[in-house]
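Dear Dr. K.,

Following up on our conversation at the group meeting, I've run the structure prediction for Ribosome biogenesis protein NSA1 from Scheffersomyces spartinae. I'm pasting the input sequence below exactly as I used it, so you can double-check it against your construct before we proceed with anything downstream. Let me know if the numbering doesn't match what you have in your notebook.
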Amino acid sequence: MKVVVAANDTGAIKEVVFNRGTDTSKQDGLQPISVKNFCVEESTRTRILQMVNYGNRYLIASRLGGRVCVYDLESHSAEDVPDEDKYKLVHTYQIALNEPNDKSIALIPFEAEELVVIAFESGKVVLINMMDDFSKDDVRPIEIQLDEKVPISVFVANPYETGVFAYGGKELDVKIVKLFDDSINVKQNDDNGGFKPECLFSAKNVKNDHLDLRVPIWITGIQFLESESSGSYKLITTTRYGQLRIYNTLEGKRPRHDYQLCEKPVLTVNFANEDHTEVIITDTHTLMGKFSLTNVDSRGFQMHSASAGDIVKPTLKLLGKYLGGNTGATFGTDVVEDEMFAAAGLDRYFRLFDVSTREVLAKIYLGVEASAVLLLDIEDEEVEQQAEEEDKPKKRARKDTTGEDEVDEEELWAQLGEEEATKTTKKVKT
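The predicted structure tokens came back this morning:
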């Protein structure tokens, strides 16, 4: 297995090669095959925020400062390639930022359309053409500005309709926009190619709470669900206030369901099965749990209010937690083929779980905080039997040598005894 992790402490990419069952938290546990740093930067002020695998050809990373780096990924699996030739920098795009502290919040590949979409907090969306010849200057990134006055914190693509995206943020409820269609041609011209965001849906906040107070908005995660009819959308959102909401645009602007999952801010949300009826939620504390989107616990959430007394609300059923000694926020997650769930974050550990059984498949200390995780290979590495066979004769030799040492020690003690007896005899004669 092979995973790459974006290291916040160094700004580099840390590659870990390991097998199922690796556990560095145990003294006698299986150790990783290799842990190496690549793409090292001079400063952590250009650390990686997001990473994507583009067709197993390129590793694309969005860094602080508006840089989008394209690294060679085809050589990472070759055994005869030296380390200095792996993850080589192919090209760098420098995006002009709207504000000095602006940073990217999403990096989305579109392999069929041969482009990559990068979104920033300021609402700037950049379309980069992934051409084979990066030296061409006539094809430059296209910049689109969303019509928002507040920063956005999440931006995702609709996998069921090309060019449709959803986004939201602090005091900005979820919106669905269309930026382009299947006939997109990313070429820069005077009118910016006619790329203008078309608003398809704008959500409305939930009703006031039990104290008749407005419920605050802060979207942290969005996932699209498959819709039965064209022109309508289904999606789920998570918030910084521990909520999960389910929307169907055919049934209005307010969410169909509003569930309180936890009291801490939700950081990531991933689907846990092919039918998209289960999700994996992580928060800023220790939660890594799998929840059902169809089964509801009628008394799942309970709280006490000084004015209203005990309040009981229905919530999504918790199917189980992914345990592994996690302490701290989990920022980087990746689910591969609905089989494996990778997670890393504040506590400097990388963990790999079986999605269905929630069993810990690997636990590796990274030594760095992680902002993004990307599984490149889920197959176990072949164990070299030759090394094991070489170890066996050495063990036997040590055993035989130990026996010889024991004989030598007996002879040595016998000689010392004879010498001591001779000295004692001489003293008596004197």
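Two things stood out to me. The mean pLDDT is 86. The first helix runs from residue 385 to 429.

Best regards,
J.T.
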